[in-house]
Amino acid sequence: MVIRSVDLRSDTVTRPTDAMREAMASAEVDDDILGYDPTARHLEEEMAKMMGKEAALFVPSGTMGNLICVMVHCDVRGSEVILGDNSHIHVYENGGISTIGGVHPKTIKNEEDGTMDLGAIEAAIRDPKESTFYPYTRLICLENTHANSGGRCLSAEYTDRVGEIAKRHGLKLHIDGARLFNASIALGVPVHRLVEAADSVSVPSSLILTSEKGLGAPVGTVIVGSHTFIEKAKTLRKTLGGGMRQIGVLCAAALVALQENLPKLQFDHKKAKLLAEGLNQMKGIRINVAAVETNMIFMDMEDGSRLTAEKLRKSLTECGILVLPGNSSRIRMVVHHQITISDVHYTLSCLQQAMQMIQEPSLNQTGKTENALSF
Ligand SMILES: *Cc1c(COP(=O)(O)O)cnc(C)c1O
């Protein structure tokens, strides 16, 4: 019997589709470091247009994209960046902005919905003219959707208000939009509207968009900003070893992802909601269905329960369901376009069984009572 596989570890686990592989095979390519790859140009122009910005640049990963953007904005030693204490840049990027970029992070608490308090942002801004003890705040970073809060969306209005603070203080704004398309679909707001506050004239700005998450392309991120910004980013990409030659093969897959998978993103959210609603019926776990705004689900083991995230992950693996523990009592599940509705139902029924087995170990599947001392 072939064990069914339902991979909910992340939305980065998707396999390139047939259409993507065909597009990769027939992509027109040339040397992109010399600036001649036509497919890369096509993807970059497409992304810049969609975001309502002047220019774009393909880079190998979201991590490098964020690093490049922060370093271009903070090109003076002693710069400080304001960002969320639970943001991807701060938590999951090896502290690269400090170790490589020489930039000092000033973290603000991320609220449950992924925002940072506006008053706290403004209060954190520092200027060495006020005191020789201070670094110079130059940049604010937002993340939309906010991954560590479970894929919550930042509204256009919230982003506008952060943009106003940046403008008032002469700061720059960077948006980590690894899953910005998910936010756009969930809020029903065009993607360019969500980044309008990141206006290259009044607020010099940038954003990253990864093609390998919800969109389901195999590799790559695009940075977007003004012409001047992208020129500087291009130099820095080369410095960091991110200059690549015939990248048209990768960009071709990303172009197909935009066409094929972007319209399907709404279904990922529906499937995530379905899964969350099913989980909400089960005993022993806690889940906030209202907080499932996009494609991520966090479920917590109830206090005092026999369940642990690791026990549950192991039992699910036996059914071919892959998930990642968020911590000792939390499981994270991420829905993507290669998860079907039937996968969702299968996951729910396996979970139900696994939880019963863990919570009532004296009952095996046939209902026979085992020696209570044997576990
Ligand atoms: C995945 C992710 C990144 C980094 O992207 P990589 O391509 O994995 O380096 C950055 N920000 C957020 C919010 C992400 O989820």
Automatic annotation (TrEMBL):
Pfam family, one: Beta_elim_lyase
Cofactor(s) needed for function: pyridoxal 5'-phosphate
Coiled coil, from the record: none
InterPro entries: ArAA_b-elim_lyase/Thr_aldolase, Low_specificity_L-TA-like, PyrdxlP-dep_Trfase, PyrdxlP-dep_Trfase_major, PyrdxlP-dep_Trfase_small
Keyword Endoplasmic reticulum: no
Keywords of the record: Pyridoxal phosphate
Domain Aromatic amino acid beta-eliminating lyase/threonine aldolase: 7-301
Top-level taxon: Eukaryota
Family to which the UniProt record says this protein belongs: Belongs to the threonine aldolase family.
NCBIfam families attached to this UniProt entry: GntG_guanitoxin (NF041359)
Protein name: Aromatic amino acid beta-eliminating lyase/threonine aldolase domain-containing protein
Source species of the chain: Brassica rapa subsp. trilocularis
